[in-house]
Every structure is written in structure tokens, then in C-alpha cells.
């Protein structure tokens, strides 16, 4: 037998093909009774097609778009439906007219849960990147107090008539050294000291366990300079015409004389090479250490005349901290707008804001930023629960702040709910928490376990209890 058009349409091939598509298909008569369901659609609602036929579609798909199509006799396209969250599909539905007579409707739908979740993850990652990127534009940094004075100094270093000069930035981790280097770079471009497309090459010298590898990265190498070394352009060459930012510069101890020579002569030599290469690079060396004590005196003298020190967060005024706080909250709101086109309003309760502003941050502004982002994350709704809303307000309370911060507050300040955990924690619950903690469980896991046992005790209260126990 030969497959012909006639045979194709008269046989059972079409339903078989429809069972092998990736889309779900439903066909109903004018009463909304299912006359055809493909396998995908039946699987979607955990049924067999034969058990669905002859039943109203609403029994299986309560929000079926087909019902509206039956009423209006018009197609409905690209409608997104949440089935049972997080199950989600997008559906196109059409009326069926045969020889002008209205006979029913059909719909074709695609499961988009996975695509939606992937999109959500991409947006989440994009948001994380945007929230943790150092500010590069002076308009967008907090420039009251500390930065006002330091930025003036930085501008002089690159912008003075006799400049630009190399410089040193010191400060504890997370105080804004990389950010300041970026600001200098942008300012230098703005005033034409370096070209609009000039490179900004950043290297954290501490990332190399071996000082020889660090040197090869910075100065480049020729093949065979060391066992296995390849011909390689160094960062100095890559930064030619722009800025070379050497973070954690104290770790390049062994190669300080090479650095000095490069800075003094404007020439570098790749490790293992004899040929010199001209370079025109502004070097900014940053460190958490006092480079005066670490660098060769000549190198320090060359760079350290132009030294800027960024104070730790604890040394900054409350007003400056408050500005930083507002800045990071605003950045979060802007990131939500960028990712989801949702106007997001973040409010902190006075108690929560007090906790954030008065906590101790060993990792300085970076840690404060992370705590603010974490707290807002904790109070924010899930994307899947937002629906079509275009404006949302969230209130960050003390319960959203990472627990380590709250006990660090000044003793003179009233502690939030200090007695409550003890009131809630019976001797049995106390024993349970201590036992789980001994087995290495963290407060969050313990709180989840308690919840499964019908005891509602937020993780931060578990943490507070454990902290008190460890002090007793
Ligand atoms: N004045 C400021 N205004 C706004 N954001 C700031 C300010 N100072 C620092 N930050 C932000 O704090 C975070 C940490 O800053 P940065 O990465 O520059 O610190 P760092 O001193 O280079 O840290 P590390 O020594 O660990 O490399 C960044 O997100 C940065 O943008």
C-alpha cells in the first residue's frame, strides 16, 4: 500500500502525530466537552486520554481558556496560565468553524515552567552581578564625608598639570579601593589623560600562590623562561595606554625591583627575555597592608607620595553610613526595575535599620552591602507570587536581618525581644536544639526541623538562643 493524501487523512495517523509533539492539545465541542485530548495534555493533568474524553474540560483544566473562546468565538493567543504553581503553560486557543457553523474550539499549549524557571535564574544572576558590581561613576557613589576629600586628592593625582602619577590606595578589605581605582580611571578618561577606549587592567596579586607565576602574569614571559612557561603578554603590556590596578600589591614582594624599574623607565622586559618593551601605564597599587613597611624604600617613595587611605566603616560617621544604607537600598530597587520592570519600594522598620547601621562589619562596606541585599532578599516575595503586579512595597523587619548582627548592637541600646526565645523554648526544645547543634546543624536547619515537629521558632531565635548558651 502507498501512503497518499487521502489515506493520510482517513487513517489514524494524525492523532498519532499529535501524541508525539511537545505541545498539549485539547479539542472541545460547543458545550466544553472534550472530544480530543493528546497524550501530552493528559499527562500534564496525570490522566489517561480515554478517561478524559466525554468529560467537561473544566474538570481537568479549571481555568481553561477554551471556555472563553466558546463564549466569544474569538481566538485567544499567548495566554500565560499558572496551573498549580509552579506549573505554568502558555496557550493559544481558536474557535472551530466548519462551513460557517460554529462547532467548538481547540487549544495548543506549551509547558513553560522550565523556561520560566531558567529565565528567573538568569534574571536572578544578572541582579546579583549588578548588585555587587563596584560603582564606577562618581555621580553614583556616596561622596559625603570620606569620599569627598579622597576623590579630590585622586583627581589631583591624575589630573594635575605635571601628572598623571602612579599612586597607592590602602584600606581594609571592602572599604572601596577597587571602586576608587575605577573612579580614577573614569575621571582620567573624562579629562582626556587617557583615551576613551583605554584599558583598565585589574589583578589581585594575592591570587597566585607562587610569586614567579604572579611575575609572569604581570610582566609576561617568553617560552621556556620557567618549566612549562609559554610566550605570553603580561598585564603591563595589556594595560598600555591605560591603568594597571594591582590589588593586594604587598604580595609581589619578590618582584618589587622589576616593578620599580618598569615604573621608573617606562619599559618592561618579559620574564626570560632580553628585549625591552615601551609602556605607558598608570599604576595604582592597592593593599590592605601598610605598603611603607612592605615595599622597597625606593618603590614606596615612587608610589607612596600619592597615597590615599580609605577608612574602615567603623571609623565613618553615622551620617555617612546612613547615606551608604540608602544608596544600597536604592540600588536594589533599581536592579529590580532593570530585571523585572517592577517599581519596587523597600522600607526598613526603624528597628531593622538601627540594627543594620549599628552592626559591626569586619569586611566593611562590602559586608554592609551584602547584609542589606540579603535582608531585602529575605523580605521579598518570590517571583512566581508576584503575578502581573507592576508596583510592590516590601517591609524589611528585624527578622530578615542576618542573626549575627543583632547581638552586636551597643549594650546601651534596648535589644529587640531579648526574652522571647527563652519564653518560647521549653526545656525539651532547648535539649533538642543543643543536641542538633552538637551534630553540626545550623540554626536554619534546626528551625526547619522544629517546624516539621510542629514548633514554630524562627532561625534567628534559635541562633540567639545558641549564642546565649555558648556565652553561659
Ligand atoms: N563611597 C561609596 N559609595 C558607594 N559604594 C561604595 C562606596 N565605597 C565602597 N562602596 C562599595 O563597597 C563595595 C566594596 O568596595 P571595593 O570592592 O571597592 O572594596 P575593596 O577595598 O577593593 O575590597 P578588597 O580589598 O576586598 O578588594 C563595592 O560594592 C563598592 O562599590
Automatic annotation (TrEMBL):
Protein name: Sigma 54-interacting transcriptional regulator
Gene3D superfamilies given in the database record: P-loop containing nucleotide triphosphate hydrolases, PAS domain
Pfam families the record matches: PAS_4, Sigma54_activat
Record organism: Anaerotignum lactatifermentans
Leader peptide range in chain numbering: none
Keywords (A to Z) from UniProt: ATP-binding, Nucleotide-binding
All copies of domain PAS, residue ranges: 10-63
InterPro entries: AAA+_ATPase, P-loop_NTPase, PAS, PAS-like_dom_sf, PAS_4, Sigma_54_int
SMART domains per the UniProt record, alphabetical: AAA, PAS
Sigma-54 factor interaction domain: residues covered: 147-377
Cytoplasm as UniProt keyword: no
Keyword Lyase appears in the UniProt entry: no
Amino acid at each position: 500500500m502507498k501512503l497518499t493524501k487521502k489515506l493520510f487523512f482517513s487513517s489514524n495517523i494524525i492523532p498519532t502525530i499529535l501524541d508525539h509533539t511537545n505541545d498539549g492539545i485539547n479539542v472541545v465541542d460547543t458545550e466544553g466537552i472534550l472530544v480530543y485530548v493528546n497524550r501530552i495534555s493528559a499527562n500534564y493533568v496525570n490522566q489517561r486520554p480515554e478517561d478524559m474524553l466525554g468529560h467537561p474540560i473544566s474538570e481537568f483544566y479549571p481555568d481553561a481558556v477554551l471556555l472563553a473562546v466558546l463564549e466569544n468565538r474569538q481566538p485567544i493567543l499567548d495566554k500565560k496560565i499558572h496551573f498549580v504553581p509552579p506549573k505554568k503553560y502558555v496557550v493559544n486557543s481558536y474557535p472551530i468553524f466548519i462551513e460557517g457553523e460554529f462547532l467548538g474550539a481547540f487549544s495548543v499549549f506549551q509547558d513553560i515552567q522550565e523556561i520560566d524557571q531558567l529565565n528567573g535564574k538568569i534574571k536572578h544572576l544578572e541582579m546579583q552581578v549588578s548588585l555587587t558590581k563596584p560603582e564606577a561613576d562618581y555621580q553614583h557613589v556616596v561622596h559625603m564625608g570620606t569620599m569627598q576629600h579622597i576623590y579630590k586628592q585622586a583627581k589631583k593625582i591624575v589630573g594635575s598639570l605635571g601628572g598623571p602619577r602612579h599612586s597607592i590606595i590602602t584600606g581594609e578589605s571592602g572599604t572601596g579601593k577597587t571602586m576608587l581605582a575605577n573612579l580614577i580611571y573614569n575621571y582620567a578618561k573624562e579629562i582626556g589623560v587617557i583615551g576613551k577606549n583605554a584599558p583598565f587592567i585589574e589583578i589581585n596579586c594575592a591570587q597566585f600562590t607562587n610569586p614567579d607565576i604572579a611575575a609572569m602574569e604581570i610582566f609576561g614571559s617568553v617560552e621556556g623562561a620557567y618549566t612549562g612557561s609559554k610566550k605570553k603578554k603580561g598585564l603591563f603590556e595589556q594595560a598600555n595606554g591605560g591603568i594597571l590596578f594591582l590589588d593586594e600589591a604587598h604580595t609581589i614582594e619578590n618582584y618589587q625591583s622589576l616593578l620599580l624599574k618598569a615604573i621608573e623607565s617606562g619599559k618592561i622586559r618579559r620574564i626570560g627575555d632580553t628585549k625591552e618593551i615601551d609602556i605607558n601605564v598608570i599604576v595604582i597599587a592597592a593593599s590592605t597592608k601598610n605598603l611603607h613597611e612592605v615595599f622597597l624604600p625606593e618603590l614606596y617613595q615612587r608610589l607612596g607620595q600619592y597615597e590615599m587611605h580609605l577608612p574602615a566603616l567603623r571609623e565613618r560617621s553615622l551620617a555617612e553610613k546612613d547615606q551608604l544604607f540608602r544608596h544600597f537600598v536604592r540600588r536594589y530597587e533599581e536592579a529590580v526595575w532593570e530585571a523585572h520592570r517592577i517599581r519596587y519600594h523597600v522600607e526598613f522598620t526603624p528597628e531593622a535599620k538601627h540594627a543594620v547601621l549599628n552592626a559591626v562589619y569586619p569586611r566593611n562596606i562590602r559586608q554592609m552591602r551584602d547584609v542589606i541585599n540579603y535582608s531585602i532578599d529575605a523580605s521579598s516575595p518570590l517571583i512566581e507570587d508576584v503575578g502581573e503586579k507592576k508596583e510592590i512595597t516590601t517591609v524589611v523587619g528585624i527578622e530578615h536581618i542576618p542573626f549575627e548582627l543583632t547581638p552586636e548592637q551597643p549594650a546601651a541600646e534596648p535589644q529587640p525581644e531579648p526574652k522571647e526565645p527563652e519564653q518560647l523554648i521549653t526545656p525539651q526544645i532547648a535539649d533538642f536544639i543543643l543536641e542538633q547543634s552538637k551534630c553540626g546543624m545550623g540554626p536554619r536547619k534546626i528551625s526547619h526541623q522544629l517546624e516539621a515537629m510542629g514548633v514554630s521558632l524562627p532561625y534567628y531565635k534559635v541562633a540567639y538562643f545558641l549564642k546565649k548558651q555558648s556565652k553561659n
